Amino acid sequence: MLRHWFRTLISYLRLPLIAHTDRELHDLREEIEFHLSSSAADHHSEGMDPRQSQQTALEQFGDVKTVVDDCCHVSLSRHLFWHRLHQLLTLGLVVAMGWLIWIYFLSENQPPPASTQLAASGYLESETTGDIQGTVVAEEGQPLSETHILAVVKTWPPHGYRQNSYTALTRPDGTFLIENVYPPGQEYEVQIAAIADAHLLKSEYVSMRTGTLDPFHFQLTRSAGLVLHFESNAGTPLSGVNAFPFERVDQNGQEHCIYFCSAQPVVRQSNLEGNLPMPHFLPGEQVTVYVQFPGGEWQTRELTVPADSQSLILTPEPASPFDDG
C-alpha cells in the first residue's frame, strides 16, 4: 500500500517532465513536417525538382533539432510553472485542512477551564469551596478512629435542586475532613451522621444557610449490644440479609438518622446463624432499621429495643393473599 502511494506521488511530481514532453514533441514534429512539406511544394511549383525543393526548404528552416529543443523548453517551462503552482496550492490546502482538524480535535478533547466547570453542587468549582470537618470522641473524651461519617449536602443551583452524599472515616486523632462539597456563598443544607461500633448513632441537621460551616463535634455514648436475628417464616435462620440503622429517637425526643443515599458504608449482612449485631441503640428506644431479605426490596422496620433482651427476631413480611401464586 505504501509503495503504491509512493509511486503515485513520484508520478505526480514528474508529470510535466513526462506527459507534457511527449505530447509537445509529437505536436512539434507534425507542425515542422507540415511546414517543410508546404515550403518544398512552393519551391517545386517555382520549377525546382523535388529533391532540390526539399533541400532548399531545410536550409531556409534551419537546424530542426535546435528548433525542437527551443520550443520544448519554452512549453515545458510554462507547464512546469503551472504544475508547481498547482502543487503549492494543493499542499497549502492539505496543510490548512490538517490544521483545522487538529484544532477541532484539541477543542473537543480539552476540558473547559476549571473556572467554568460545574461541581456536584451545581455551582462552579470555584464557588464550591466549603469543607465539612470535625471530630468524634467517646464519652470520656478520647478520640474515636474508624468512625463512619455520612454527609448529605443539598443545594439549589440555577439548573435545579441537587442532593449529593459523601463519606469519610475519622483519623486516629478522631478528626475528619470532606473537602469542597458546598458553596459558602449560596444557600445549602447539610445532614451529617456519625456511627461507630458499640456507640449510639448520632446525627445533626444544618438548615438552610449561607457562609462557612463550623467544625462538627460528635461525642458518642456507649450503646447496648442489640442483635437482630433473621428467620424465615418457617423458623429457619436466614443468612445474607442486608440491614443498617436508619433512625433513633433519644430520650429528649431528638431524631438521629442516616439518609439512605449515604448508607452504603454501614450496610451489614446476617451470618450463617441469621444474626447481625446492631449496637447503635439503647434499651427502650423507638428505632427504625432498613432491611433487605434475599431477593427482596429494601423495607423499613419500626422496632422497640427490648429492655430485658439482647435480641430481636425479624422475619419476611407475609405474602398478601391477593398476590399471584
Give a quick rundown of the structure.
The chain contains 3 helices and 15 strands. The chain has 3 domains: 2-109, no CATH class; 130-220, Immunoglobulin-like; 227-314, Immunoglobulin-like. The chain is an alpha+beta fold.
Report what the structure shows.
There is one protein chain. The protein is of the alpha+beta class and 325 residues long. It folds into three domains: 2-109, no CATH class; 130-220, Immunoglobulin-like, CATH 2.60.40; 227-314, Immunoglobulin-like (Sandwich), CATH 2.60.40. 31% of the residues lie in helices and 28% in strands. The protein contains three helices and 15 strands. The strands form four sheets. Strands 9, 10, 11, 13 and 14 form a five-stranded antiparallel beta sheet that branches. α1 crosses α2 (50-61) and α1 runs antiparallel to α3 (64-109). The two termini are 68 Å apart. The model is unreliable at 319-325 (pLDDT under 50). Keywords: Membrane, Transmembrane, Transmembrane helix. The chain crosses the membrane at residues 88-107. InterPro entries: Perm_prefix_1.
From N to C, what is the helix and strand string? HHHEEEEEEEEEEEEEEE
The gyration radius over C-alpha positions equals: 46 Å
What is the arithmetic mean of pLDDT? 84
Oligomeric status of the shown chains?
Answer: single chain
Strand content: 25-35%
Shape, principal axes of CA atoms: rod-shaped
> What is the number of E strands?
15
Count of DSSP-assigned helices: 3
Query: Largest beta sheet, briefly?
Result: 5 strands, antiparallel
> What structural class is derived from the secondary structure elements?
alpha+beta
Helical residue percent band: 25-40%
Total separate domains: 3
pLDDT below 50 for ≥5 consecutive residues: which ranges?
A: 319-325
- For the termini, the CA-CA separation is 68 Å
